[in-house]
Structures are given as structure tokens and as C-alpha cells.
Design brief:
The complex is a heterodimer of chains A (211) and B (40). Chain A has 211 residues and is α/β, with parallel strands linked by helices. Helices cover 19% and strands 27% of the residues of chain A. In chain B, 22% of the residues lie in helices and 0% in strands. The chains are: A alpha/beta (211), B mainly alpha (40).
């Protein structure tokens, strides 16, 4: 599997995403101004502050040339993962339902949380709990008309860091190839930093593609 | 204090006003989480 990691001006987690993806396959950067996805098998839209997050988180990035190709790739069933700011971008691009609002605390949160994987997708296999860090200010998921079957990740009981509805940490599209979440699996791929549970997402794509 | 409003003001100089609403819907606001008002 060859992963493509999108880099916008203001992205900051693309290096860790590359490193995480390379633990299970090949990976390369994809520049926001390009149109070509260069033959990759899966797309990761990483965290950070795309285009400075001016106007609204994720709002401008969705109009980048590369995102047009990512939207087409997702429409053809290609696996796409949005992490944190990448999740916000995928919501703004309407690849995923809902939007992200400021944390109820109105403060930046950075901590390790347990998230329950409650639904299969290209990026998940239900039935496990993962220890993964969150770090965000605008992570309160809001989607009034969400189909509960699209919830993939939930914060474990009592660990919701941002006030998201029904403890939702991440969701999928109906087809299950597009997934977004606020926690950062790419920061949890080595026991050296406390947890390698984040590999679950990247390995799930591997299983999906390789069979 | 009866009302407080904190929001974002976007000023645009345009010759053709016909696309203002579409601009709000597509980019300037996210209708799921934001209200907007066009003042001319």
C-alpha cells in the first residue's frame, strides 16, 4: 500500500503521518497545489492549521487543487483519512457529515485519551479500545442529522475532552472509505511515546487493500 | 445588557451582487454552524 500525505501551507503533522504510514507501507507527500495523486492507494489529510485556518477551520483548504483530486478519489471508493485539522477539512469538503465547534472549555486540550472503535471502515475494525492523544481547540463534533451507523470512534466513558455530541471522536461516510477523527493516531505508533495503538488505523487499510 | 453579538464581518466590494448568497453558502459561512446576514 502506498499512502499519500497531503501537505497544505500550515500543515504540521504530515511528518508524523508519513512516519506512521511507513511503518505499514510506502508513503509520500502530496503538495496542495498539485492535481495529481501520483498513483497512491490511500490518502491521509493530516493535522495542523491549513492555510492558517483563516475564516474557519478547514474552510479554505477544501478549495485547493489537490482536494479536488482527493474528492474524486474518495468518490471512486479510495480510502481517505482526515486527522484533526484534516477531519475539519473533510467536513468542510462535505466528504464527511457535520462540523467541528470550539471545545466546551474554550481551551486547548492536549492529553492521552481512550477511544473505542465501534464500527468497521477502511480505517478501523470494531471491538478494540485505543490509547491515543488529542490536541485541539476546535474539536467538538456537531452533526444534528448524523446516522448513528456512521460513528466509528467514541471517547471512552468520562474521557470526552471537548464536549462532542454523544462522545463522538470520529465518523465515516456511508461507504466507509472516508474516515475522520480528532485524536491523532499518527502520534501513537511507537511504545517509546507511550502507545502504538494508532497503528490500528494504518494497518486496517493494509488489510483492506491486501485482503 | 439585552443583547451581545460576537461575529465576523466580511466586507466585499462587488459590482454584481447576484452571487453574494452563493459565496456565503459555499465559503464565507458554514450554514450548519453559522448564521449569516447580507447587508448592502
Amino acid at each position: 500500500v502506498k499512502f499519500g500525505v497531503v501537505q497544505f501551507p500550515g500543515s504540521c503533522d504530515h511528518r508524523d503521518a508519513l512516519d506512521a504510514a511507513r511503518r505499514v507501507g510506502d508513503a509520500q507527500l502530496l503538495w496542495h497545489g498539485d492535481h495529481s495523486l501520483d498513483g497512491i492507494d490511500a490518502v491521509i489529510v493530516p493535522g495542523g492549521f491549513s492555510y492558517g485556518d483563516y475564516l474557519r477551520v478547514g474552510a479554505i483548504a477544501r478549495f485547493s487543487p489537490l482536494m479536488e483530486s482527493v474528492i474524486a478519489f474518495a468518490g471512486d471508493g479510495g480510502p481517505v483519512l482526515g486527522i484533526c485539522n484534516g477531519f475539519q477539512v473533510l467536513c468542510e469538503a462535505h466528504l464527511l457529515p457535520g462540523a467541528l465547534l470550539p471545545n466546551t472549555s474554550l481551551r486547548f486540550v492536549c492529553r492521552q485519551v481512550d477511544i473505542e472503535v465501534v464500527r468497521d471502515s477502511d480505517w478501523s475494525q470494531a471491538g478494540v479500545t485505543l490509547s491515543i492523544p488529542v490536541k485541539h481547540t476546535t474539536g467538538r463534533y456537531f452533526a444534528p442529522d448524523l446516522d448513528p451507523a456512521q460513528v466509528v470512534f467514541r471517547y471512552a466513558n468520562g474521557q470526552n475532552p471537548n464536549g462532542s455530541q454523544n462522545d463522538i471522536a470520529g465518523v465515516r461516510n456511508e461507504a466507509g472509505n472516508v474516515v475522520g477523527l480528532m485524536p491523532h493516531p499518527e502520534h501513537a505508533v511507537d511504545p517509546l511515546t507511550g502507545s502504538a495503538d494508532g497503528l490500528h488505523l494504518f494497518e486496517s487499510v493494509l488489510r483492506e487493500r491486501v485482503g | 445588557v439585552e443583547n451581545v453579538h460576537v461575529g465576523r464581518l466580511v466586507e466585499l466590494d462587488v459590482e454584481d451582487e447576484s452571487q453574494l448568497d452563493a459565496m456565503c453558502q459555499k465559503l464565507l459561512a458554514n450554514p450548519l454552524i453559522e448564521d449569516y446576514e447580507i447587508v448592502k
